[in-house]
What does this fold into?
Amino acid sequence: MRFIWFVVALLLLPSAAKAEWLEASSPNFVVYADDSERDLQLFTQRLELYHEAMKVLTGTDPGTPSPSNRVTVYVVKSEAEVQRILNMGRTGGGVGGFYIGRAGAAMAVVPTIQSSGGRVGQSMAILLHEYAHHFLLSGSVHGALGWMNEGGAEFFAGAQFNSDGGISLGLPNTGRYRELSYVSDQVTAEELLDPDLFKRRRRGIEHAFYARSWGLYHYLTMEPERRGQMARYVRLQAEGAAPRQAAEQAFGNLADVNRGLNAYLRRTRLTAFTFAPGQLTSGAVQIRQLSAGEAEIMPVRIRSRRGVTSELAAELVVRARAIAARHPQDAAVLSALAETEFDAGNDAQALAAADAALAIDSAQVNAYVQKGYALFRQAETAEDKDAAFRAAVVPFVALNRMEPDHPLGLYYYYLGFVRRGRDPSDNAMAALARAVELAPFDTALRLVLARQQISSAQWEDARYNLLPIANSPHGGALALRAREVIDAIVAGPPADATALLALLEGEGEDVDAPGTGGEGDSGEGDGGAASGAEGSPDAGNRETGDSDAGKSDAGKVQPDKAGATETAP
It folds into this structure.
């Protein structure tokens, strides 16, 4: 009898807690977390507050993204899990969070939600750093030089969410400040402002680069006598000035800039911006609990979105099939299954899962995307490629009708012409340009547009779209090649586009297809084919602004928009 009661008692004990994943949806973010509703609400509100503060300080409004083009943040409980996701199964590397910028699928993964006030912790600082990159690229036609790109992200990530509901930005970065004590002579302001000078001795001075970039950005932003110079510097480069020439015209003698920077960084107190409670208005946050199926498949979904190896794809599809068998009427689960089937190379199964998802819920964005991916891949080996690629475009046209500003719907409409061996129509070119405007953080997408513009002898437009690639601090070989092409364009209209295209397509290609793949950036140290006409996406009559040098001064700060406070490093 005693044994029977013991068994009954065991049965009455609560089982291991199931994941209770929640989704927080706001104008600029979607956040998924197995956490409390209160903490998730506060975390997402703070991200929106940070976004609004950046809008005010930079004088830049990237506009509200379409639902699928928001940054999706996954909170996964531990740094070890972050590392397993980033490294596709392996831990290690000391990564505390990462971000991948992709058209229609920009994502970040962090270990925890910071719900307490005060200076942000490491994982939150990484997220804010990477979102600063995302924001600054989203608000600019051109790209800032590496020092400004990284220095700006470090500047804005120096944040504090105050207990009264306000926010402070530009606080001294204590880690970088400590580094400055032993790297101040390793990189001068002149070297940061002259990339040709810097690249001669870049190896081995990465920490000095980040620390001095933060210091230079802080100095040029906060020092009263330098007010307005950064905006001029950005505009001069956008108008075609070489980096050193733009710096000398905007800042004066670069040796004087270096002396001023060194004196500035020796100060015992530095200034930051503080917004009082209620001074900023951020968007509303809506919370919903995920269905049982969505919660169960979330770990699979996160790994699929990050990108997979063939071995990991084979593992994930088995897990996704088992979950889908338990939740056969959950459209979100079936959409995730379609993604894993595609990743595993199973196009027929991917199509079946996508069609099943759409039969239940015709608003499943990812089902349209995965169906289109599978049809495009099948079309590569079809006997009638023209008909197959026409059919492959259909899901993306349907996606465009549902969400006109989804960049992948626009891009794949353009790609349908290319894959059929046709010259893109004017509307297809407008669709491609609009896709880049919507997802300027996707390097692969921008590279496609630049190549197309070179092929069409649109030299100035091509130069504009190569600038962010050339200026990327993590651009590697591709950044160097983009800079060579820009220099060739600036030297005079090239006689032949063939050599420039060959240069861009040289060895060391370090981008994936738009909206797919991609390396994470950890903060520093990234059913059958539908029938019918392909239709035409809503590229609209919007101006793409490819040659609009005055579109934005993203990256520079307008100091008169918030209160200034002094803080000790």
Notes: The chain has two domains: 23-270, 293-504.
